[in-house]
Amino acid sequence: MSVCIIVGAQWGDEGKGKIVDMLSEQANIVARYQGGANAGHTIVFDGKTYILHLIPSGILHPATQCVIGNGVVIDPVALMEEIHMLEGMGISIEGRLHISHKAHLIMPYHKMMDAAREKQAGSIGTTGRGIGPAYNDKALRIGIRIVDLLDREALGEKIRTNLAEKNQILRALYDVEPLDVDAMIDEYVAFDTQIDPYITDTTTLLNNALKDGKHVLAEGAQGALLDLDHGTYPFVTSSNPTSGGACTGLGIPPTSITSVMGVVKAYSTRVGNGPFPTELEDATGELLRAEGHEFGATTGRSRRCGWLDVPALRYSIMVNGISEIALTKLDVLGALDELKICTGYTLDGKTLKSFPADAQTLSRVTCEYVTLPGWRSSLDGIMAFADLPQAAQEYVNTIEQLLDTRVVWVSTSPNREDTFKK
Ligand code: GDP
Ligand code: IMO
Ligand code: MG
Fold it and tell me: Domain span at residue 224?
């Protein structure tokens, strides 16, 4: 039995999809534990690109089972689109996708509330996928769950009650036209018939699999610094991407976890608003964005780019219990003459000993940097650490030393094959 949790160690988009896909070949089950269609996980192989929002990145390995756990919030529209996309690309889902009956549903009013709130001052820059409002209803105990789809009468009642309240809010606060309740009930009843074959008790499924000695990969979405509790609040998502979220989001015990792998991009990016100490708002940032194709896989927005941030990563390693790192996008840095790594923060002339708890403080820190030589060459075709240019090896070794954590995988292109062990 083993459970490896794969977490994004930064602000998301570290390349989790690529790493989970690669490791899926050895896994019996890949399980998503939080978030929703705000995630965009990209996998590239055989000249095809797959962008997954809800379905685990194990789906491209035919022998691997996939679970969408209770901690995920499911948008039926996005889910059906994704199932059809995969089937259209020749991937068989039948008998391989298992959706928790305890997962909450994203309703049309969640997306409308998300969009309406984003128009207000001080917005977070969400993906607009209804994530915050859906988790809000879950915490308020008025959420609608997959299991509620089974009882048509109760489902109708719940939607009616919720919508009566949401329509008032939408109209009064955001000047949005009311939504039609009967159309919404019909839509969700139709959805039930489509996803019925996939719904199951995934908590029991996973725990039985563990008893049978199976190997499970728990796939995080977003990243540790977007965690609702541990991230740069309030500029965060509404769930717990950190490793602890895997237990609550899947219903597996902490004692079943065997390792936590952090996916770290060789530099930093962030989409949406919020503090970003190492951000490069200059030609170097532009170069990283262009070379790394740093545009959101879900919304297409430009990703903000910056240097690698060791204080943020040390914090992420601590909170997640990361014991090994998969380092991605090393190739992108081949475009730069020299590379900087932020090794510490100072505030008002004093060195900070820990990662600030509030966004306001984090936005005021000054970064201390070390500068390393670049290698100014392509990493195409390199399949062993020893064959990397000396400066690239030095960059990776420096990261390991500064983070006091082993880099076990190095990724040098979007393609499935271009990953090797350090
Ligand atoms: P995720 O959300 O963590 O799964 O990451 P995304 O898929 O949103 O963003 C990562 C992007 O970088 C995708 O376009 C990947 O195809 C791409 N990518 C992943 N690993 C590498 C790598 O090592 N080198 C390069 N150049 N691109 C990579
Ligand atoms: P993956 O899994 C990067 C960001 C949004 C916004 C904040 C809150 O692909 O790494 P939300 O829609 O969740 O309420 O938005 O979180 N965000 C992500 N940034 N990658 C993601 O997912 C993200 N999911 C949400 O941009 O700043
Ligand atoms: Mg992404």
Answer: 2-100+199-261
